Amino acid sequence: MSSRSMGRDDGRWGALLWLGLMCGAWSLPALAFAVPEELAPVAAAQEEMAAQLAQIQATLAAMQEEKSDSERTFLVQQQMVLQNLEVLMAELSHLYHSVSFIADQVYEPYVATTTPTWDLRLAAEAGFLAPLYHRIKYGKGGDTFDYLKEGGQDVLFPTMRMSAELRLGQAHGIIFLYQPIDIRTRVNLTRSLNMDGTEFSAGTGMDLRYGFDFYRASYLYDFFGDDPGVELSIGASLQIRNAIIEFMPISGRGGYVNRGVGPVPILKMRGRYTFPCGVWLGGEVDGFYAPIKYINGGKSDVEGAIIDLSARVGVPLQTGVDLFLNTRYIGGGAEGTSSRPAPSDGFTANWLHFFAVTLGVQWDVRRSLD
Predict the structure, then answer these.
(1) Which of 41, 38, 54, 40 is nearest to 89 (CA)?
(2) How many C-beta neighbours within 10 Å does residue 360 have?
(3) Could you say which of 110, 144, 230, 279 is the most buried, measured as most Cβ atoms within 10 Å of its Cβ?
(4) What residue segments make up the domains of the chain, in order of their start?
(5) Which of 43-52, 102-111, 194-203 has the lowest mean pLDDT?
(6) What is the rounded distance in angstroms from the CA atom of residue 25 to the CA atom of residue 320?
(7) Which CATH superfamily does the domain covering 118-369 fall into?
(8) DSSP codes, 295-311
(9) C-alpha 364: how far from its chain's center?
(10) Helix axis angle, 3-33 to 69-106, nearest 10°
(11) How many CB atoms lie within 10 A of CB 286?
């Protein structure tokens, strides 16, 4: 056989080997993302490829009768490679059948045909909170304190959130949320500090607490309530803040404490899309800006703002139970003068930007009972 003919044969058998290897490579991602109903055509394709490999082996065996010793050795080597590919295909086929059996037992994506008249959705999430910016000032003559640079908030803090949602009919939702934020640090002051007339000298050891728990009740109207795979909801919330801010010397002598409870009205929007396999993407935003008294829940002119923005991806674990990963931005604050007992002048400036990553579980009670 000429070198040109041998080169054509090499290219032909090389192409066949490449086809076999591509088949194996294609099988791996298909295995990773397959769901039970998708495994049947994959297995059929593998069986067809195995039949083609067997036919190629028969052709190689017949060609050995007509070739020289060197060519026959080359064909034998190609035949051994194809035999190894055939063994690999058989193992992959066995693996697919095993995965199909397991998936049938544990994987059951939720496909709703009708929207229930009610549903109760419980959710809990936990993770870390990272302050990105946080400064506070009490009293017009006081000092601005940077929590990140001076107050030990340059690390991660644990965070959690719990909520309960009652769905009524196809479109209406009532949500109750509890979000604790209680950041405690211990530092030595690098400079003297004035907090609303209370003086702390440089080098003083301090226990700092920034507590800003809030409770939120919301109403949402879903414009796609008749489609269980899509949600676009708009509504409003009423948030109750429970603020406890402390600057306490470790010695226990003196200190500054500011506490307050107040209502905050908020606008709310939420969206969600569920893929046929059950994986879903969601987003939510609560926010408001209020420069006028009474609108922001206060009794005097204070500029206030809040935004609670999140994005999440969820996967079904079983009917009615989802696992989700959530990223969240919480920002806002207040600045202005309010009524406080003397000698305080009532001025406050408190602005923050927080980022959180949490892992959560969501339980749809009605879905799990159906």
Answers:
(1) 54
(2) 20
(3) 110
(4) 3-106, 118-369
(5) 102-111
(6) 35
(7) OMPT-like (2.40.128.90)
(8) TTS-SS-EEEEEEEEEE
(9) 18
(10) 10
(11) 23
